[in-house]
Amino acid sequence: MSGESQQAEFGSRWDAPQVHRDLLWLTNARSQFRLRRTFERICSPRRIVATLLAGVFLVAYLMYGIFVLSNRAAASPDHLRAWLSGGMVLYAFYHAVRCVWTESMVDLEMTPAERLWLGGGPLHRSSLATYRITNIVSATAIKTLLLTIVIARDVQHVELLVLGVFSSLLLLDTVRQILVRIASGLSDVNRRRAKAVSVVMISAVALQVIAKVTAMTPMGSPTWLYLIHVFYSVGELAQGVVIQAFAIAWIPMASLAVASSYSMWTPIAIVCNVMTILFAVRVLVWADHWALMQSRTQEQSLLRELDRSDGNGSATSRFAENRSLEVDVLCGHRGLSATVALLVRQYQSVRRYRGTILISFVIPTLLCLSPLVTNQVMEQWFYVVSGVALCTMLLAPPALRLDFRRDLLRMQLLKSLPVKPLSMVVGQLTLPILITWIFQWVTLTIAALVVHPGWGQWLMWTMLMAAFAVFTFAAENALFLVYPHHAHQQGLGMMLRAKLTFLGKAGVIAGSLALLVLWAAVCKSILPESFHAFGFVGGAIVATWGIAAVSVLVTAMCWRRFDLSFDLPPQ
After folding, report:
1. Over the stretch 35-62, which tens digit does the pLDDT of each residue have?
2. What is the tens place of the pLDDT at every residue in 238-287?
3. Closest-CA residue to 283 (of 430, 391, 178, 160)
4. Residue 526 CB neighbour total at 10 angstroms
5. What distance in Å separates the CA atoms of residue 131 and residue 148, rounded to the nearest whole number?
6. Which residues cross the membrane (predicted)?
7. CB-CB contact of 428 with 346 (8 Å)
8. Domain extent listing, the chain
9. Residue 393: which of 468, 480, 458, 447 has the closest Cα?
10. Do 388 and 440 contact (CB within 8 A), yes or no?
11. What's the pTM?
12. Which residue, among 164, 383, 138, has the nearest Cα to 260 in the 3D structure?
């Protein structure tokens, strides 16, 4: 049967089954290659540290699941079912907001090689969409395994739990793909409207959580009780009527996961789950087709606008002016040093994404200042500083990917530039660190004006947090240069990387607090009483900035040893 007759038989948007079998073979071949490559990297002496850490994490996680989680009291099946379905909806809301506020999104999250060889081939978009879903099955299975270890104590049949959780996570990722494609097809006006709707939605969720926390927590309670009740409030919100109404597609999957016994409804629930996922894939194909049509319409409209304005030269002169600005700044000023030229390059990105960056730090600022509403005056300053430290280490690096982490595809170009490693690192990291410093300074200054901890405390913690920001971004980039990865990469390696990075950051924060307490004890024991505060503050500032400087030098060393032939991950 010819290709034309096959396409006529299966419709204008779908390829023949043989095409999908070939794509499935490609997915299997890529998976086998990645497994072999992962095994080779595990055995490589260059990766021995990552191998040991991953092994320790897996053993600790399994031991924790066996000896700790298995001995806790089982949760109510009704609450667990509502939490599983409602939690997926909250996660989908998060992805919707993120898609609306993200300026650039990769087409179906395909790598450049996939966009070249598959996107440019004689394949329908529906085949590419289903190919994308099959590629996330392995990552979904790994996530299912980890979540199953956590909640296996709460169910009677682990096999049904695995089926329900796997279906829920696979549907969630498919919904995320749908949201990405719909967001990519929005016009500028509709995107602004969607942003306004997202702000209203976030505000409604935040107000509900605040109201629940206020009702649950008596006035004058310690701040840690407020934090615990926040998690309880989020759980109750996930079980609410509104969220459960949105979770109608996940309710059968959650019911299957917590089923206490097999019944006549078990095969029906399994069939419903499969049909739901297939329907979601069909919606993804429709959303992709709609996004392509919208993008084509917007491009045609832009071309017509340029044709109309070309007569008076306004548009042409505007684009020429912008181009001349970029070319002159980045290439034409021979007197500029390499670091300054890199800073100007970073500034172009900051100016383009200034709205997203501003929103990304307004919410953490409000969260860090939230302890100020409690009546525990002695605890307020401590919790604000702790919140700033957590946001600096956990939220700032993902929000400010304006360094080496966005330049993986440009590594060959960056390596070819006549720029010293230290100058390259300073040029790449300065603006993200400066933006983080502004967030820290604003938050700590507002808290100091309210709590009045003393300007000595404000100065000390401002300097410490500034050094902490330098260390955080330097460590993130050093880790990326040693173990690089693509922006939307999936799989076991990325999952382990995320878990180990989170645990490592938590360990750094805990270790820093322990060292500060130890240094305070040392100063109290060896220094005269009048020099206690001066010695503690001065020593802490000198030590943290020394560690920050060393971390920058380590990042420069990692950039110097970056090997294009070995370290660049395949596409």
Report:
1. 787 777 667 666 676 667 667 777 776 7
2. 888 888 888 899 988 988 888 888 888 888 888 988 999 999 988 988 88
3. 178
4. 10
5. 26
6. 48-70, 82-101, 196-215, 268-287, 355-374, 380-400, 421-452, 458-482, 502-522, 534-559
7. yes
8. 1-72, 75-294, 320-560
9. 468
10. yes
11. 0.73
12. 164
